[in-house]
Amino acid sequence: MTSQYEQAGVNIHAGEEAVRDIKAIVNQTHDSNVLGGLGGFGAEYELTSEVGHLDQPVLISGTDGVGTKLLLAIEADNHATIGIDLVAMCANDVLAQGAKPLFFLDYIALGELEPGKVMTIVKGIAAGCQQAGLSLIGGEMAEMPGIYRSKDYDLSGFAVGIADKAQLLGSMRVQAGDLLIGLDSSGVHSNGYSLVRKIIQDADLDLKKVYPGLKQPLINDLLTPTKLYYNQVYPLIQTGSLHAAAHITGGGLADNLGRMMPSDLTALIDPESWQVPAIFKVLQTAGKVSLSEMRQVFNMGIGMVLVVPPRCVDDVKAVLEQQQTGYQMIGKVVKRREQPVQYQE
């Protein structure tokens, strides 16, 4: 017999099935600091081994979502990698502060709880956590048919990392003469999708078409997950090779680099120093978007920028090359002119 709660659109049994199915996936992300497992009222993470070698331990947290990229995933019925995007939006921010990522929690709200879809989404979240050095220690699923339509859902996440106060990255360490190393993005990442969707609609783009310059259908390019930079960047943090780092999200290079520039310094960027990926050229041409707006909205092929003192540049480049990480020397830090970030035209 169907309960009144199920008649209202909430299936408790489906929720229980989903939780049961994802436990094994979640457990694979756990390190020895995770206490207990899923099912408690709160997740427990022991810090004893993490703080013992730190003089002034600082917890660094970040929270974010995926934005309207979700609508393309829903339209394509492809949910395999959207969880990676979720983790990356939080983990890359925490990493940019100089933190070692510790643990992650997620929140999934759905119009209709389908255990198979939830399993696919959580597999992506777990994969992202493994790439970011995070333990997935908890989360929440909420079936809310009055807010979301049956196939719709939303994601948000919360990451916590740890660092020694003296080793934090940021504007307080940036100096004139520091060099800017841009790490390649994997594509559009997870920002600017309201504009992407407007371009698709206005230009009547075919999501299944392989446009000139692309190597796969447009939808595949657009759903390519955000790159996680933990394996590339954290070893450089450990060796003290960085003064700062910027995760390039909404606002592009200018806004995100500007957040870590001291009031008397400017990031001078050479836009000719890297090749803009074809996906951005497709969007710009189809949408007739100005170059200045493209730079303001999208990462344009640079997903993270490292601010490196000159004495460490060769060592940083050697590490990145050993890891086969794509990078470009994109500029330098100079005395402030008019803006906190300027393009060298």
TrEMBL record:
HAMAP family per the UniProt record, alphabetical: AIRS
Molecular-function GO terms, alphabetical: ATP binding; phosphoribosylamine-glycine ligase activity; phosphoribosylformylglycinamidine cyclo-ligase activity
Keywords assigned by UniProt, alphabetized: ATP-binding, Cytoplasm, Ligase, Nucleotide-binding, Purine biosynthesis
Species: Secundilactobacillus pentosiphilus
Protein name, entry field: Phosphoribosylformylglycinamidine cyclo-ligase
Domain PurM-like N-terminal span(s) in chain numbering: 58-163
GO biological process, one term: 'de novo' IMP biosynthetic process
Biological pathway: Purine metabolism; IMP biosynthesis via de novo pathway; 5-amino-1-(5-phospho-D-ribosyl)imidazole from N(2)-formyl-N(1)-(5-phospho-D-ribosyl)glycinamide: step 2/2
Known catalytic reactions: 2-formamido-N(1)-(5-O-phospho-beta-D-ribosyl)acetamidine + ATP = 5-amino-1-(5-phospho-beta-D-ribosyl)imidazole + ADP + phosphate + H(+)
Pfam families: AIRS, AIRS_C
Keyword Transport appears in the UniProt entry: no
UniProt-listed Enzyme Commission number(s): 6.3.3.1
Residues spanning the membrane: none
Subcellular location: Cytoplasm
